[in-house]
Write the structure tokens for this entry.
Amino acid sequence: MTMSSMARARMRATEKVMLRYYNDMGKRKGNCTWGIGFYAHKGICSEDELARMVDAASVDIEYGKRIAEAERRIKLKVRVALTQDQFDGLVSFTYNTTNVANQPVYDALNGKNFPRAAQIMSDSVYVRLKGKKKLASGLVARRAEESAPFHAVKTNAAASSKQEEVHGPN
């Protein structure tokens, strides 16, 4: 399974394209980032990095690579059946979070606790800024969309009977 083209385009529309390096939380705040929210490294960009421009083709290539990496991680770590909508939401979430943030979601899914996975995703709307937890209001709508297909699953039995396998034969 791969991320649907519609979900890929929708996710791309949520990310502002920056053809340069920038600090993701504003001037002299956050982490050095480029393109479509591509994390370059922890901490603010150097003056040399802030002066660095990137071209649209490089952004498109990197976007494809990062989606493929999110898909790969899900296929490696999630061992339950997912619908296309669930897979799409999980790719978007994985793309936009760290292993520390997404592993509890994978664990909940593997335990067939889809509502818990949805709740963890929905709650992942905070960032650390200078050691303090801060609401990233721009993530609220994104997390609601990503987690929606998991909130809809009411029981483990219903989930397993209505879902498509993420993995091929082992």
The chain has one domain: 5-162.
